[in-house]
Write a structure and sequence with these properties.
Blueprint (H helix, E strand, L loop, with lengths): L3 H21 L5 H16 L9 H25 L6 H27 L9 H18 L4 H25 L1 E2 L4 E2 L15 H16 L5 H18 L5
Antiparallel strand pairs: 1-2
Length: about 240
């Protein structure tokens, strides 16, 4: 499998190229471009969160714990504006939530997952992308178009990661496959049918209750047609 540096480098290059493609073509503004770039890079590291000892796993777990703890503390101060010793209580909330997330929820996650298991699969990354769409649209009030673009960039970054892992599973010099071949870019595992059925049901429900995806698709289609018309006018 590819190492952390390779995944990070390729994720940054791919995401930057796609963001520039969209930004110069008028698909989104500068602020949205930065968010899309971030999602692409995160997606490029996301599949390795099931490897507890990996660099992306360690850093990702700490960052997500810090984010949830800080958000919880902010929400506490919002709902308890007149509480006595508010700062001290908010700090206690922050500490408790951080410890629960880092050593409780995430600790259980590490215990239940196996590297290159279900997380290293296409439907799992689709689910993660759809969670981003829902979070951006329903949680942060972003437009349906931008929400789908953010989820799309996360998914593309993740697919680049899985494709790299599959590429590294081929011994080019010996023209043979390594034992890890087929363990990254997969759609289903016959040994875990129930888990994958549940996963596909979740993906279907997330898609059905997601915001309208047509604006994002139309914008991307128009962008591609514009670029083709610009560089290959006779191709259309």
């Amino acid at each position: 499998m590819a190492n952390f540096t390779t995944h990070l480098t390729v994720a940054v290059i791919t995401s930057t190229a796609l963001v520039m493609f969209g930004f110069l073509g008028g698909l989104f503004g500068f602020g949205a471009a930065i968010f899309c770039l971030m999602m692409g890079v995160i997606g490029g590291l996301l599949p390795d969160i099931d490897l507890e000892t990996s660099i992306p796993a360690k850093r990702f777990f700490v960052l997500i714990s810090l984010f949830v703890a800080t958000l919880s503390a902010i929400l506490y101060t919002t709902y308890e504006p007149t509480a006595i010793q508010l700062t001290e209580r908010a700090f206690m909330v922050w500490c408790v939530v951080f410890l629960v997330m880092r050593y409780g929820v995430i600790g259980l996650f590490n215990h239940l997952t196996v590297h290159r298991g279900m997380i290293h699969s296409v439907p799992y990354m689709v689910m993660c992308g759809l969670f981003v769409v829902h979070g951006a649209f329903y949680g942060f009030g972003m437009t349906a178009k931008l929400s789908w673009l953010l989820g799309g960039f996360l998914f593309i970054g993740a697919m680049v990661h899985l494709a790299l892992d599959e590429l590294y599973s081929v011994n080019v010099l010996g023209l043979r496959l390594k034992k890890s071949a087929g363990t990254a870019l997969k759609l289903f595992e016959s040994k875990k049918p129930l888990r994958y059925i549940i996963l596909y049901i979740i993906v279907l429900l997330l898609f059905l209750y997601a915001p309208e995806h047509q604006p994002a698709l139309n914008s991307v289609r128009v962008l591609i047609q514009a670029w083709i018309q610009k560089f290959a006018p006779h191709a259309m």
